[in-house]
């Protein structure tokens, strides 16, 4: 039987794309990765995601799926080995809840902090730290958000592992320290040590340059205002 | 024998997000207790059940809370399987979910602001649905209502308010025939009638809000 054709359209640095790579890796699914230039979107991307024109897009047997959570759930339902979501509906609801929290609350608060200047910086740090405390509270006593093994919420929150260290380096400030966030610190280590995850993070140096540049560009456009 | 589960829904009468959950529970014939929250004065119970967001709706099953309307919807779908609101086919499901997000994220606020953009948005949604999920109607899901009908149906009072207050018809029969027919058929369903957002009450509230907003900009 012919191997099902799987393509992933993405960029080297997108955390949303990375989560799909993790899911496919965990399930042992082979795929072609197509690097997109978001400043110059390919006809393929425009064909497969005409509405949003964003990455990631998964193409399976010619059918396209967009939106990272949707793709994750599709992958889990299509390739049944090493399930990412738990079976119990309540646990599944919790996994989805924490994933959303990561993207809709924590991520924007981290971004805000990253681009904040002057007095706004302290306020932004407090906000981001509040969210970190909430995550720490949820994780308490667990190896992964999913329990003993890595699951949906871990994959969705995995961007924290390399991105936060990046931001810490650029901003010269330790956000997730072991004293205040023992569970999160342990989780970050457990996550990166998990088979298949370890060497998957995008090259650190390239990411540092990218984020430094982003930050500078942002400051340049807001310089002179307040 | 099915065990009896204790189900409670914390909500607010004007919230479309809460209406969504009411509708899903009704369609599935789930017995539940409803607790009306005063959003200006939230109860200790609510704050305890949803400490992260402090919002409605919150569904509590045998004491365990679930919040965020789409998360609740999927939970309801997986806990009470009949009748299914989502298709089994993972690909078809994958087509429905982004549309759900798109509708839910175009906030109640946006509805009241009523711009060209929102109408454009509805048009895009109609096209997307017609393209990916062909249906003979009257519902988006076909003969019986599905998840998208539940979500769009919850907005029906809001759409009416828009039409009457601002003179903007969001659900034009010619422009968005499937969305129009979905909502028209949905509000006719016996099972959701007493949980649909009461139109007059909503109109009055929106009216008051607008008066207040206009008055504050005058000074």
From TrEMBL, chain A:
Q: Where is the GST N-terminal domain?
A: 4-83
Q: Which Pfam families match?
A: GST_C, GST_N
- Family matches, as PROSITE patterns: GST_CTER, GST_NTER
Lipid biosynthesis found in the keyword field: no
| GO CC field | cytoplasm
Question: Could you provide one GO biological process annotation from this protein's UniProt record?
Answer: glutathione metabolic process
Q: EC no.?
A: 2.5.1.18
The record ties this protein, via PANTHER family, to: GLUTATHIONE S-TRANSFERASE, GST, SUPERFAMILY, GST DOMAIN CONTAINING, GLUTATHIONE TRANSFERASE
Q: What is this protein called?
A: glutathione transferase
Query: What species was this sequence derived from?
Result: Phoenix dactylifera (Date palm)
Automatic annotation (TrEMBL), chain B:
Question: What Gene Ontology cellular-component terms does the record carry?
Answer: cytosol
May I ask which residue range the UniProt record assigns to the signal sequence? none
One biological process term in Gene Ontology: glutathione metabolic process
Q: Can you give the residue ranges of the GST N-terminal domain? A: 5-84
What would be the name of the gene that encodes this protein? LOC103716407
Protein name in the entry: Glutathione S-transferase
PANTHER family reported for this sequence: GLUTATHIONE S-TRANSFERASE U8 (PTHR11260:SF676), GLUTATHIONE S-TRANSFERASE, GST, SUPERFAMILY, GST DOMAIN CONTAINING (PTHR11260)
Q: Which organism is it from?
A: Phoenix dactylifera
EC code: 2.5.1.18
What's its job?
Is involved in the conjugation of reduced glutathione to a wide number of exogenous and endogenous hydrophobic electrophiles.
């Amino acid at each position: 039987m012919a191997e099902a054709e799987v393509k992933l359209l993405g960029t080297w640095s997108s955390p949303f794309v990375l989560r799909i790579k993790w899911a496919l890796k965990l399930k042992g699914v082979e795929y072609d990765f197509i690097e997109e230039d978001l400043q110059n979107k390919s006809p393929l991307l425009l064909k497969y995601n005409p509405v949003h024109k964003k990455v990631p897009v998964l193409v399976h047997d010619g059918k396209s799926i967009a939106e990272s959570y949707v793709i994750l759930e599709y992958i889990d339902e299509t390739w049944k080995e090493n399930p990412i979501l738990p079976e119990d509906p309540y646990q599944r609801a919790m996994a989805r809840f924490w994933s959303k929290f990561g993207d809709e609350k924590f991520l924007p608060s981290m971004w805000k902090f990253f681009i904040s200047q002057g007095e706004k910086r302290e306020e932004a740090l407090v906000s981001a730290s509040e969210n970190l405390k909430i995550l720490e509270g949820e994780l308490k006593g667990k190896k992964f958000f999913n329990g003993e093994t890595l699951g949906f919420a871990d994959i969705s929150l995995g961007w924290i592992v390399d991105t936060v260290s990046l931001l810490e380096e650029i901003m010269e400030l330790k956000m997730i320290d072991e004293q205040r966030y023992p569970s999160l610190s342990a989780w970050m280590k457990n996550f990166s040590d998990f088979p298949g995850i370890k060497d998957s993070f995008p090259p650190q140096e390239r990411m540092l340059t990218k984020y430094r540049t982003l930050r500078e560009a942002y400051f340049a456009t807001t310089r002179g205002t307040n | 024998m099915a065990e009896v589960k204790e189900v409670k829904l914390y909500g607010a009468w004007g919230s479309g997000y809460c209406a969504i959950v009411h509708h899903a529970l009704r369609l599935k014939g789930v017995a539940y207790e409803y607790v009306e929250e005063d959003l200006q004065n939230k109860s200790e119970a609510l704050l305890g059940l949803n400490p992260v967001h402090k919002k409605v709706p919150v569904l509590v099953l045998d004491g365990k809370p679930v919040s965020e309307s789409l998360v609740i919807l999927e939970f309801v779908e997986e806990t009470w399987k009949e009748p299914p609101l989502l298709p089994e086919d993972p690909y078809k499901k994958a087509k429905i979910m982004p549309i759900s997000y798109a509708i839910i994220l175009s906030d109640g606020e946006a509805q009241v602001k009523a711009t060209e953009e929102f109408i454009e948005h509805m048009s895009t949604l109609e096209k997307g649905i017609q393209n990916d999920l062909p249906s003979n109607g009257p519902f988006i899901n076909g003969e019986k209502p599905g998840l998208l009908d539940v979500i769009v149906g919850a907005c029906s009072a809001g759409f009416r308010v828009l039409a009457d207050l601002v003179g903007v018809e969001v659900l034009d029969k010619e422009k968005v025939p499937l969305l129009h027919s979905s909502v028209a058929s949905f509000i006719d369903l016996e099972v959701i009638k007493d949980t649909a957002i009461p139109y007059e009450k909503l109109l009055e509230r929106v009216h008051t809000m607008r008066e207040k907003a206009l008055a504050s900009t005058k000074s």
